[in-house]
Every structure is written in structure tokens, then in C-alpha cells.
């Protein structure tokens, strides 16, 4: 019986079960009867399974049936009513925590205390104001103090940790930061650089992995690795004062800093196909009832300072709404009135920087479906036919051809107890993943295990006559991943590499030309040269008739966009407004746009 026709009593029985045996009537086409049973109910089963399961995949799957609601007792304040009764400056603790960092700084600066209270609180106030100031200096003034950790971006979390280190005022420390400029608008970059210089000036050493041009130029010493990536890299091309890298022979970084190489501004902007997708009444998080139009058949950049509302629009409204529409998703969609223009699209694809797999078993070859073609090639060899091997024989996920000692992983996990688990090569197959019988088969004198160790560049040469294989691998070359190995574990790939592998898989598909691609800061972790290759790939997608929408702070990508949607003017509650829309040239003329101010200089290059 359909759920909507079930009486309410029966619905409650299904949802919450029964604590004792009850009589249940049943009937089929040929028979009917009654039996006594005790039924747990769907809700108790879900709660018990979520609590007891140690499988992340299972918990993620069941998570779609759960939602968070505000506590009825404290109203979301987290502390008892007796505690909230204590006020300082007419504000309770929850009220202070609900302030943004900028507002909290102003509140404590203006706080008036009596003589005795001021004496008691002087040391604490000094510490509070200093820590708030550090958070403001790294561009986080828009975050509220009670913002939950899981909702922070990677860049925001890193800058909070940085601010906590500054507050400790330690000296003689080596600080190592991996791309602190991630998620940071150019307007806030200067404050971050000054913060890093402050750490240096008080007697510390700051080591930064960075691709941002302003940060590189602000350094005292630069170590440039290269000249290429993967097996073509690993060499120190230059080490010394920043000014010297500009003239360093063989330094691609130096070429871009000097202007010998550059990402040119397009001579002509694409105008699209005349159709558009429009989101009306966007109100998720800090968005102020916006109507935003995205021209189809273009590369559109959504810009703005950190916290301006970019992710709220793209990741909380547009993508989940389109995913639910085209892919029967069940994602929660942020508040908005309606979305029009969906009839002009046939699918939506989000290409993020999440890993392509959570275990060493996943790799670029399996993710891109390249491995299926390679297994077929090995199955067609003379030796395979002689032994009666099928393509499944060359899968490390299936019994038969794989090494059973490690179940095709090539490594074994050693639990260290209190330390991180360690992976060691399998003592039977020595990391080859296949058994001896399978390794008797060779294609051009190379076994299936040898192929897993190939770089994409080597694999293209080895399988040059096989068009389907070359087609997939050429897309990996196009996105700048010719150096990665086919069998490289997914857990060792960076976020930028994972995103480009996902891009290559989409490029290898035969698309309809009516797809909307969504990317959130695709330039993260990319060198100038990698950004140039990425732009070539995005241009190919657009020229095939598709639409690409990216959230981006990288000015090289923004200046090449066909259309810009600039949100702001600030972050948090002072953001969420539509500041400017148009081509980069048009946005550069808008006085109230921080993005436009920085674009002016880039468009002249």
C-alpha cells in the first residue's frame, strides 16, 4: 500500500515499531494470513545503525535521513539559562559569541567597566582584544565567534590556526604553511603577508609553499623546484633572493614573474548562446534576496571577498537545486524563490577537489575508466587466449588474477596502536598486486604490473596504436597531469590533482554541449603554468557549447572569464549583495567592486 494511503497508526508502527509482539495481517494474490511479530521500526533502526556502524561510507549514506534541529531547552545557545543570565556590557555570553569577529573587537574596545571590575578584567581584556586583532589581520573579521568548525573552509581553518600561533608570541619557531592564501581575496592578501612578516620579525622562521605572486615577491628567500612536474621535476632550479629567480635559467616561475611568459587577456569575450539560467530571490545564509543570471555558453566567474556569499549561492542553492532536478538528488537547497532556464540544460556536474578515492586501491587509471581498456588489451594477447584469461583476470579487485595475500592492494596495513597506520609492501607480490600466473602475460614485453607503474607520458607511447586508450590519456596530458603514474594511490594525490583528474574524465566523455560545470576555486594548488593549462581545458568545454561556472580569487582566471558576478561588498552580514555583473572590462569600471579595482591592472598586461 502506498505510504500516503496508510492510516496514521500504521505509519507510526512502521516508523517507530512496537515494543511487544503484535498481530500483523498479510495478503498476497494467492493467500493471506496473520502472524505475530515484534518490529523495531525504521527510526530506531536508523539511530542504532548510525551509532554502531564503523563504516564511513555507511554513515554518509544513512546521513541523508538525518537533519539537525535547534535544541528546545537552550534555543541553540548551548549553555544553561542560569549562565546566560550573566551579562557584561548588557550582553550575555551567547550574544557575544553570536557577534562577528569585527563586531566583537569593537564591542570589547568600547566596553566600560567599573573600577574594581576593570582591575580584575584588564589582563583578560588585553588577551581577548589581541586575539581578535590577529583574526582580523588574517582577513577573518566576517566570521562569527560561534561558527562551527566543520563549516569552515580549509583556508579559513588554516588562518585561524595561524592567528592562534601569532597570539602565543613564541620565538625561535619554524612555521610551515601550505598555501595560506587559499580562499583569500587579493584585498586581504596584504594583511596576510604582513602577518607572516610579523612572525618573522619577532624571531621566527616562516616556510611557505605558495603559488600566489604577491606572496612570492614578499619573500626574503625563494626555493624554486622544477623544471617540470613528476619525474621531470625534483630539482632545485633556483635558491636565493627573490629578485634572482626572475633571471634564473630554466625557472618557469621566473618566466612568469618577469613577464617572459604570461596568461593573455582574451582578444574577444564569448557572448554565449543567448540563453540563461536565473536564480531569483536567493536568500541562503547572508544573501540579500538576490536575482542572479548566468549566461549559458560562457565561462562565468563568481567573485568577491571571503564570506561575500559565493559558496552560499553556488554550493548551497544552484548546484543542489540542479542536482536534485537532473540526478534525482535529495540535497537540501538554500532559500530562494525559483530557478528558471533549466530546460536549456541536460545535466550538471560539480568538479571539486575531494579525493577520487579513500583507499590506496583507487587510482587515476581506475577512476578515468582507462583501466577497463587496458585490461581488454591484455586479454586479447596471445598468451591470455592460450591460458583462457578474460579481462577480469587483470583486475586487482577480483579474485583469480590478483595476489590474494594482499587482496590486490600491493601493500599491507600494519596497525601501530596510538600511532598512524603504516602500509608496507606485500611480502608475496612485492607490491605488484597480481599473482605469478597473471604476470606471465606481457604486452610489448611489459606486464600489467609494469603498466601500473607507467607515467601517463610513458603509457601514451606504449599504447600508441590503441585510440580509446590514447584519447583518455590525452585528456590527462591536456590538464597537465602527464607526470602522474597510472597506479598512483588516490590517497597520495593533492586536491588540485584530484580535481584535474575529474576534469580529464569529463573531457573524455562525449558530451551533449548542454552541460553546466561547477568548480570551486580550481586554481587551488596550481602554478602559473598549470593555471594556463586549466584555462585551455575550461575553454574547450565552453567552446563545445557547455557552461562553466567557477568561484575564483585568482586574477589570471578572472581576467579571462566571459562574465563576472561579483558579490560583496564585505564578508558575513555586510556581504551578500550583488556588486557588479558583466565582462571583466565592465566590472573593472565599478568603483564599489574590490575585484574590479584589482582587475584594472591585470587587464592592462
CATH superfamily heading of the domain at 364-490: ABC transporter ATPase  like domain
* Radius of gyration (Å): 29 Å
Number of helices: 24
Main sheet? 6 strands, mixed
Overall geometry: globular
CATH topology of the domain at 364-490: ABC transporter ATPase like fold
CATH class of the domain at 364-490: Mainly Alpha
Structural class: alpha/beta
**Total number of β-strand segments?**
19
Cα distance, first to last residue?
68 Å
Order the strands across the largest sheet as they lie in space.
Answer: 13-16-17-11-18-19
Helix content: 25-40%
Give the CATH architecture of the domain at 364-490: Up-down Bundle
Poorly predicted sequence stretches spanning 5 or more consecutive residues: none
Q: Give the integer mean of the pLDDT values.
A: 89
Content of β-strand: 15-25%
Amino acid at each position: 500500500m502506498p505510504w500516503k494511503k496508510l492510516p496514521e497508526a500504521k505509519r507510526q508502527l512502521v516508523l517507530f515499531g512496537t515494543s511487544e509482539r503484535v498481530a500483523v495481517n498479510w495478503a498476497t494474490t494467492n493467500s493471506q494470513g496473520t502472524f505475530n511479530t515484534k518490529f523495531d521500526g525504521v527510526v530506531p533502526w536508523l539511530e542504532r545503525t548510525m551509532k554502531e556502524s564503523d563504516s564511513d561510507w555507511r554513515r554518509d549514506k544513512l546521513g541523508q535521513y538525518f537533519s539537525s534541529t535547534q535544541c528546545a531547552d537552550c534555543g541553540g545557545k548551548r549553555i544553561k539559562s542560569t549562565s546566560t543570565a550573566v551579562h557584561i556590557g548588557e550582553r550575555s555570553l551567547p550574544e557575544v559569541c553570536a557577534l562577528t569577529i569585527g563586531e566583537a573587537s569593537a564591542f570589547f574596545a568600547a566596553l566600560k567597566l567599573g573600577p574594581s571590575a576593570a582591575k580584575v578584567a584588564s589582563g583578560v581584556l588585553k588577551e581577548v582584544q589581541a586575539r581578535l586583532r590577529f583574526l582580523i589581520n588574517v582577513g577573518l573579521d566576517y566570521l562569527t565567534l560561534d561558527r562551527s568548525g566543520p563549516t569552515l573552509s580549509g583556508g579559513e581553518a588554516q588562518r585561524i590556526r595561524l592567528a592562534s600561533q601569532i597570539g602565543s608570541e613564541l620565538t625561535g619557531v619554524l612555521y610551515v604553511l601550505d598555501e595560506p592564501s587559499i580562499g583569500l581575496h587579493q584585498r586581504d592578501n596584504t594583511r596576510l603577508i604582513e602577518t607572516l612578516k610579523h612572525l618573522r620579525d619577532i624571531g621566527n622562521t616562516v616556510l611557505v609553499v605558495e603559488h600566489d605572486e604577491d606572496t612570492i615577491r614578499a619573500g626574503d628567500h625563494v626555493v624554486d623546484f622544477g623544471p617540470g612536474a613528476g619525474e621531470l621535476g625534483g630539482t632545485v632550479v633556483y635558491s636565493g633572493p627573490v629578485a634572482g629567480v626572475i633571471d634564473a635559467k630554466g625557472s618557469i616561475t621566473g618566466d612568469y614573474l618577469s613577464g617572459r611568459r604570461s596568461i593573455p587577456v582574451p582578444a574577444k569575450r564569448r557572448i554565449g548562446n543567448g540563453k540563461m539560467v536565473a536564480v531569483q530571490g536567493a536568500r541562503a545564509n547572508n544573501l540579500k534576496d538576490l536575482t542572479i543570471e548566468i549566461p549559458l555558453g560562457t565561462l562565468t566567474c563568481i567573485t568577491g571577498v571571503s564570506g561575500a556569499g559565493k559558496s552560499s549561492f553556488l554550493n548551497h542553492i544552484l548546484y543542489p537545486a540542479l542536482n536534485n532536478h537532473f540526478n534525482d538528488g535529495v540535497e537540501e537547497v538554500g532559500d530562494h524563490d525559483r530557478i528558471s532556464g533549466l530546460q536549456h540544460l541536460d545535466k550538471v556536474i560539480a568538479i571539486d577537489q575531494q579525493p577520487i578515492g579513500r583507499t590506496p586501491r583507487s587510482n587515476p587509471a581506475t577512476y578515468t575508466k582507462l583501466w577497463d581498456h587496458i585490461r581488454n588489451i591484455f586479454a586479447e594477447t596471445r598468451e591470455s587466449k592460450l591460458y583462457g584469461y578474460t579481462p577480469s583476470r587483470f583486475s586487482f579487485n577480483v579474485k583469480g588474477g590478483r595476489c590474494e595475500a594482499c587482496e590486490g592492494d600491493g601493500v599491507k596495513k600494519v596497525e601501530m596502536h596510538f600511532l598512524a597506520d603504516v602500509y608496507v609492501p606485500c611480502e608475496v607480490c612485492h607490491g605488484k598486486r597480481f599473482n605469478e600466473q597473471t604476470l606471465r602475460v606481457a604486452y610489448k614485453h611489459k606486464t600489467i604490473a609494469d603498466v601500473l607503474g607507467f607515467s601517463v607520458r610513458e603509457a601514451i607511447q606504449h599504447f600508441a596504436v590503441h585510440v580509446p586508450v590514447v584519447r583518455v590519456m590525452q585528456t590527462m596530458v591536456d590538464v597537465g597531469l602527464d607526470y602522474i603514474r597510472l597506479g598512483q594511490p588516490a590517497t597520495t594525490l593533492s586536491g588540485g590533482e584530484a580535481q584535474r583528474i575529474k576534469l580529464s574524465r569529463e573531457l573524455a566523455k562525449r558530451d551533449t554541449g548542454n552541460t553546466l560545470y561547477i568548480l570551486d576555486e580550481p586554481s587551488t594548488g596550481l602554478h602559473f603554468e598549470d593555471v594556463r593549462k586549466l584555462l585551455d581545458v575550461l575553454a574547450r568545454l565552453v567552446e563545445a557549447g557547455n557552461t562553466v561556472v567557477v568561484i575564483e580569487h585568482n586574477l589570471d582566471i578572472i581576467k579571462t572569464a566571459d562574465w563576472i558576478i561579483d558579490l560583496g561588498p564585505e564578508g558575513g552580514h555586510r556581504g551578500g549583495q550583488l556588486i557588479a555583473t558583466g565582462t571583466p572590462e565592465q566590472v573593472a569600471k565599478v568603483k564599489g567592486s574590490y575585484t574590479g579595482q584589482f582587475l584594472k591592472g591585470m587587464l592592462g598586461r
